[in-house]
Amino acid sequence: MTEKKQRVHLKAPDHWVNDPNGFIYYQGYYHLFYQYFPYGPRWGTMHWGHAVSRDLVNWEHKGIALFPSKRGDQNGCFSGSAVEREGKLCLIYTGVRYEEVNPEDIHVSLNEQFESCQMMAVSEDGFSFDNWKDKEMVLAPVADPKIGSRTHTRDPKVWKGGDGWYMILGSTLEEKQGEALIYRSEDLGSWFLVNQASKGPEYGWMWECPDYVKVPGGEALFVSAMGLPGISGKEKNQALCFPVTFDEASCRMEIPDEYQFLDYGMDLYAPQTTLDRDGRRILTAWVRMPEPVGDGWIGMFCAPRVVEMENGHIFFRLHPQIREALSREILKPSQAAPEGYRAVFELEEGQRINIGGMMVWRNGNRLFADRSGVYPHFEGAHLLSATPQLNGGCHVEALVDENLVELFVNDGEYTVSSVVYRLGKWIRPEGNLADIKLYTLAG
Ligand code: FRU
């Protein structure tokens, strides 16, 4: 078992984690729930694990918050979000009920025969959860295929609008194109469909984990698109983001054709945002890992990123509290705390740097990262990542953890995050790269 207390990056306490859920700053704590399978390092019947932090840097695992206990969620508490209502913490998530259970493995369904409803669990204080008493279904499975799928409709993200509560829900039209369903509610207890938004099969057959937010400079939609066609050299399920406009009265969302990837590495998926203590819109995401680490845990979360927009471009900036925590200057990575270090450097055209076995370089005003030296050749593994053309120079801030290297390019113009294994505790510029500054945790 990894430590109950973790710093900088939140990782699985043991066994398996995937999506971040119910991310919220509530009564003095950041709460980050997550998809959790408590019986082994693989996906199965979903629970909500729970971790809390005062500062986004020091985290403590609190065990299981939600587990299957009602007919609607008897085979899993899938992803969802959190809001505060009259001082209480409300968790709104997808309940899954299998119609056919795999007789040899009851933690998965057979032939994708399951139905999904939306449920709510209410906690008085964010720490105690009564899975029998304080849980109810708030939205029945979708019954009309013209609206969405009875099976693949999930991951409610709820927010408070000007005149009530809004929910964006991921779905699919005929298992051909991803869509987002937008609902409104007066009280979180009953929901009315107001609109549907989709873009066509080129944008994936199913949209998981949608999130819509207003940020400084614009509005953004996130979706985790399954089965993106025509994508080569990358996993086909990818988190995308679009600059959008949303009208509350009609719930109409204008989504442009062009999108950005959430991240230009290969591993981030299912992001979720919330507001931090100071009102910044922050995001974390599941870091997909191909195999367990150490004594058998798999899955972690990227460091929180601040989301902002400029001229229609979405930026993901390193959160200032992470930068501040990693501010003790060191001369070499071997002097870093176990949680890793932050490296800051500028890459000129053609320059390269080797971060413990991972190569990073600039070419044609794009940043490339090749992890083949620190990533065993898992079947189908994609090893080379690159950003689009950068706008201007190439300033890099790297957050280096033994399992994950996150590159923030030009203060979040693009990010490139890569899972790594057995990263070396050294950093080597190649050629005439001059100045690298290294920082680690103060305490
Ligand atoms: C995304 C996802 C969600 C779902 C959850 C199940 O990774 O497939 O759509 O709610 O994971 O664990």
Describe this structure in words.
The chain is an all-beta fold. It folds into two domains: 5-320, Tachylectin-2, Chain A (5 Propeller); 326-440, Jelly Rolls, CATH 2.60.120.560. The protein contains one helix and 35 strands. The protein has a six-stranded antiparallel β-sheet. It is globular. The model has no long low-confidence stretch (mean pLDDT 96). Beta-D-fructofuranose binds next to strand 2, strand 6, strand 10, strand 14 and strand 20.
Output the CATH class name of the largest domain: Mainly Beta
Mean pLDDT: 96
Kindly report the CATH topology of the largest domain. Tachylectin-2, Chain A
Largest beta sheet: what is the strand line-up? 25-35-26-31-32-33
Level of helix content?
A: under 10%
N- and C-termini, Cα separation: 23 Å
CATH superfamily of the largest domain: Glycosyl hydrolase domain, family 43
Q: Kindly give the count of domains.
A: 2
Number of helices: 1
Count all strands and give the number.
Answer: 35
Low-confidence stretches: none
Task: List the ions, cofactors and other small molecules found in this model.
Answer: beta-D-fructofuranose
C-alpha-based Rg, rounded? 21 Å
Key terms for this structure?
5-stranded antiparallel sheet, 1% helix, mainly beta, single chain, 443 residues, 2 domains, binds beta-D-fructofuranose, Tachylectin-2, Chain A, 35 strands, Jelly Rolls, 6-stranded antiparallel sheet
Could you give a quick summary of the protein structure above?
This protein is an all-beta fold and 443 residues long.
